[in-house]
Amino acid sequence: MHSAKIAAILTTALLASSALAQQSDNSLPTDELVKQWWQLTLSIPNSVRADFRGWEAGCGLGQRGVWFLTSEVSAGRPITQNCLIPQGRKLFVPVVTAVCTPFPGETLEENIQICREAVDPYDKLVLTIDGKNRNDLIERRAQSRGFPAWFPENNIFDTPGQFDVPAGIYIMVAEGQFALVEGLAVGAHVIRATASSSTDASVPKFDVIFRIRMAPATSVTPR
């Protein structure tokens, strides 16, 4: 990776950039959920994440339609995120994912390859739901056409004393391994996602536990 590039970890998600060979943007499928997941994830300031840390309400920030699960930073140690989610929602769960934005002089095609090579080493993926293996739900998905994402001040790429990414709109590409979970009954559930490499010990390991309460909607009678 370029030393000037940004590397950060969010949930089981990997945000990584470097500059490598070109590849056609038609070589990977486009996936609307990947784009929407990253647009939501990137739009939340670090200060807001801190305010909601440990609270179920933090899991609901910006949600609509499909529920996008994210969590605190995971770097080998288990991270737990508590979530209160309305009954009937589909859950979009990241196992490992990369988002890349071109620096001056780079192309989207180069960054498609960057994202692919960031995800490729992760060959040990495990998804469990309530203790049962559900690796069958894991799919490799990509948004390989450039999409806009808004970065607030104090965004997830900022590293105090090292890197400050200005607020603004950036063009991104993204790829990763995700699972779309449907049909969870009302009540408590545990989803755990882990990702690691069997061939490269330098690749960070990820381990995120989502403790979920699926709740029925409550009707309110106007006065």
Low-confidence stretches: 1-28
Count every helix, treating DSSP H or I runs of 4 or more residues as helices.
3
Strand content: 35-45%
Report the count of strand segments.
11
How is the biggest beta sheet arranged? 5 strands, mixed
Our measurement of the CA-to-CA distance between the termini, rounded to an integer number of angstroms, reads 60 Å
- Please estimate the helix content: 10-25%
Structural class: mainly beta
Please tell me about this protein's structure.
The chain has helices at residues 32-43, 46-51, 108-119; strands at 7-10, 13-16, 67-68, 79-86, 91-100, 124-129, 132-133, 138-151, 168-181, 187-196, 206-215. Strand 6 and strand 7 (132-133) form a beta hairpin. The longest helix has 12 residues, at 32-43. Helix content is 13%, strand content 38%. The protein is globular and about 60 Å long. With 223 residues, the protein is mainly β. Mean pLDDT is 83; it is low at 1-28. The strands form 3 sheets. A 5-stranded mixed β-sheet has the order 4-11-10-6-7, with no helix packed on it. It is built from 3 helices and 11 strands, in the order E-E-H-H-E-E-E-H-E-E-E-E-E-E.
Essential attributes:
223 residues; mainly beta; 5-stranded mixed sheet; 4-stranded mixed sheet; 3 helices; 11 strands; 13% helix
Question: In a nutshell, what does this entry contain?
Answer:
By secondary structure, the protein is mainly beta.
Topology:
Blueprint: E1 7-10, E2 13-16, H1 32-43, H2 46-51, E3 67-68, E4 79-86, E5 91-100, H3 108-119, E6 124-129, E7 132-133, E8 138-151, E9 168-181, E10 187-196, E11 206-215
Parallel strand pairs: 3-5, 4-11
Antiparallel strand pairs: 1-2, 5-9, 6-7, 6-10, 8-9, 10-11
